[in-house]
Each structure stands twice: as C-alpha cells, then as structure tokens.
Specification:
The chain has 105 residues and is mainly α. The protein is 71% helix and 0% strand. The protein has four helices and no strands. The longest helix has 24 residues. The termini are far apart.
Length: 105
C-alpha cells in the first residue's frame, strides 16, 4: 500500500511541475544564423561538385571520346576482320575445322 501512496505523490508532483512550464530564452538571431550556416554548406557542396566538371572540361572529354571512337572505327575498317577472327579462333582452339565439338563427343 505504501508503494501506491508513493506513486500517487510522484504523479501529483509530476503534474504540478508540468503546469509550471517556462519559456526558454533564445537568441533572436539563432534561427537566422542556423539557416545561414546550413545554406552556405549546401552552396559550397554544389560548387565543389560542379566546379571541377566545367563546360570546358566537358567539351574536352567529348572530343577525346570522339577521337578514340573514330580511331577504333578507322582501324577496324583497315584490318581484315574475318582473317583476324579466324586467327583468334585457331589460337584458342575455337575453330570448327571439320571437327566434332568436344561437347558432343
């Protein structure tokens, strides 16, 4: 029974404290300072990400990729593709020169 009285006292104390709410004093510019800090960090992150991949660098990357592709196309047209394919197949024993496949044996 004593525990019930203690609990009742604690509940009453808690309810009386809940009614004594006090406003917490805040600096008038706290919100402004916090928002300024948050938005400056976001702007810095954006500038770091977009700063290194500038339009000049994008254009240079595009030119390099186009030159590499054109070189590959040029060399593919100059070489005899079927002859190279046959040589590759023979080198790795992939050719099917009148042999039955090893999987069918």
């Amino acid at each position: 029974m004593d525990s019930n009285k203690d609990i009742d006292k604690k509940v009453e104390e808690l309810l009386s404290l809940a009614g004594q709410e006090k406003e917490v004093p805040i600096s008038p510019f706290f919100k402004d300072k916090t928002l300024d800090i948050l938005f400056t960090k976001e702007e810095e992150e954006r500038s770091v990400i977009s700063g290194w991949f500038t339009p000049k660098l994008q254009l240079a990357t595009l030119v390099v990729v186009l030159l590499a592709n054109s070189y590959v196309l040029y060399t593919m047209n100059q070489s005899d593709y079927s002859q190279q394919l046959d040589e590759f197949a023979q080198a790795y024993q992939l050719s099917n020169d009148d042999e039955i496949s090893t999987y069918l044996k």
